[in-house]
Amino acid sequence: IRLVGENIIKGDNLVNGISLPSQDVTITGNGKLSIETTMSQQDANNFHTQTGIREKALSIEDAQITILGSGIQGNSDCGIYFSRSCQMKDAALSIQHMIDGINGSEYYQIFTIDHTHISMQNIEFGIILNPTRQIPVTKFHNSDMSITSGNTSLNLTNGANISNTKIVAISQQGNAIYSEGNLNIDNHSELNLNGKWCAIQCRGDELNIDNSQIIGHSTEDAAIFTSGHLTIQNNSYIQVQGYLCGLQSNQDLQMK
Question: How many beta carbons lie within 10 A of that of residue 158, not counting itself?
Answer without folding.
Answer: 20
